[in-house]
Amino acid sequence: MFAPVDNTARVHAVVRRLGDAIALGLLADGEQLPSETDLAAHLGVSTVTLREALMALRQQGLIETRRGRGGGSFVRAPARPFDLDERLRPLSAEELRDLGDHYAAIAGAAARLAAARSLPDDVRRLRRSLDEMAAGAPMCRLDGRLHLDVAAASQSVRLTREEIRLQAEIGPLVWAVHDLPDRRAAVDAEHAGIVDAIERADDAAARDVAESHVLNAVQRLIERRLEL
């Protein structure tokens, strides 16, 4: 959530990034944000840009700022949850498809290399995420972590950085569609398929399952967008 934002419309990008994180529960109610200097550095924006974004978030009731000792910016849980349809409206089906193609290529490449290069500790981390998913932990936290762990297991710094960037861009949409009642069982099976293929060092299967996992989610997003 704190990866650097794109150069265009930076205030809007920061508001969208932090707003999504709050609406999805990645930032908990009452949680204190990093200092303005640290947060601006993480996001790759100026402190002026960050302050404008924080002002917009305060106007939306998503954060509150406390002055004095022990002060700072604190998260306020939104009155309504993440609105998938609202987030989809500005995006065309063509944009979603193009973004999905790119994300599938990155996820597939990372999974293929993870199957070839992963160490036992990498697999144990992936299995732990699967166990937490089975126990009902929030998908928005675990899906992102699982994909980042796969990318890390690929031992490719560039792929891992691109995974982080893409999760910041499309992650909230994917997590929201994963949590739809008719998708959760299929998503769990896809996650297990990726980890199983990595564990048995089947690089072709790992790539195929990871690609289809992303493309299935994006197809649902496109279908939902066309219904609006």
From TrEMBL:
Sorted alphabetically, which Pfam families does this protein's record hold?
FCD (PF07729), GntR (PF00392)
Alphabetized PROSITE patterns for the sequence: HTH_GNTR (PS50949)
UniProt KW keywords: DNA-binding, Transcription, Transcription regulation
Give the domain of life.
Answer: Bacteria
Q: Report the InterPro entries cross-referenced here.
A: GntR_C (IPR011711), TF_FadR/GntR_C (IPR008920), Tscrpt_reg_HTH_GntR (IPR000524), WH-like_DNA-bd_sf (IPR036388), WH_DNA-bd_sf (IPR036390)
Gene Ontology molecular functions? DNA binding; DNA-binding transcription factor activity
Q: What is this protein called?
A: FadR family transcriptional regulator
Query: Native species of this protein?
Result: Actinomadura decatromicini
Taxonomy-wise, where does this protein's organism fall, top ranks first?
Bacteria, Bacillati, Actinomycetota, Actinomycetes, Streptosporangiales
